[in-house]
Amino acid sequence: MAEGSDRIFVGGLPYYFTEVQIRELLESFGPLRGFDLVKDRDTGNSKGYGLCVYKDQEATDVACAALNGLKMGDKTLTVRRATIRLPDEIPTKVLCLTEVPYVFSFLKRKNVNDV
């Protein structure tokens, strides 16, 4: 897996692009330290996105600026720094309240401490 703080997410890749073609495109901005094309487990086909890390950190920003929004066939590339999610982060939970008591219902009660 392409690891590093300067890891880049490359999305919107045409499915017919080979791993070699994508690597050549990315390496036009500098040598890569790592590249991973995400593939379907069952078919082995590209899922249309991958991650890479450049050896030279300056190439990261140049590649993002040059490739992001680039049209490739019927697809548009999304190229940006990948966000890192730490293992101890807990996803935000959404609470849905179906019956929210109104303040007026509490005021009608004689003893508010019963609530």
UniProtKB/TrEMBL annotation:
<dbReference type="InterPro" id="IPR000504">
    <property type="entry name" value="RRM_dom"/>
</dbReference>
<protein>
    <recommendedName>
        <fullName>RRM domain-containing protein</fullName>
    </recommendedName>
</protein>
<dbReference type="GO" id="GO:0006397">
    <property type="term" value="P:mRNA processing"/>
</dbReference>
<keyword id="KW-0694">RNA-binding</keyword>
<dbReference type="InterPro" id="IPR012677">
    <property type="entry name" value="Nucleotide-bd_a/b_plait_sf"/>
</dbReference>
<dbReference type="GO" id="GO:0008380">
    <property type="term" value="P:RNA splicing"/>
</dbReference>
<dbReference type="InterPro" id="IPR035979">
    <property type="entry name" value="RBD_domain_sf"/>
</dbReference>
<feature type="domain" description="RRM">
    <location>
        <begin position="6"/>
        <end position="84"/>
    </location>
</feature>
<keyword id="KW-0508">mRNA splicing</keyword>
<dbReference type="Pfam" id="PF00076">
    <property type="entry name" value="RRM_1"/>
</dbReference>
<keyword id="KW-0507">mRNA processing</keyword>
<dbReference type="GO" id="GO:0003723">
    <property type="term" value="F:RNA binding"/>
</dbReference>
